[in-house]
Write a structure and sequence with these properties.
By secondary structure, this protein is an alpha+beta fold. The protein is built from three helices and six strands, in the order βαββααβββ. β2 and β3 form a beta hairpin. It is globular, with a radius of gyration of 15 Å.
Amino acid sequence: MLVVNRFRVATDTDAFTAKVHAALRALAACPGYVSGRFGRAPDEPDLWCVATEWKSVGAYRRALSNFDVKMYATPLLAQSIEEPSAYEVLASLEPGGELVVTGGDWVHVEEGRR
């Protein structure tokens, strides 16, 4: 499971960066967390991104109910650009490895039902 949250931040970037660091620490302490990244678009400096990888959809959803995640990550994630952020990984390739293609196990949701 890949989660990508994008943000528009033009001012007070030091405070935003501190919030992201705290959120990543809280998320990383949760079972099922694989990795996390924080970046900024070089061609559009007010566009920022937090990307995390999880072992499963369930691990990510369970992490969202963790107390520290609610304290540090949830308020930050609520400020992200409103767009889908969770993606099922359908293929991956490690350096020197083989391409791994998965059939996917995401439950397809009908429009209007969640």
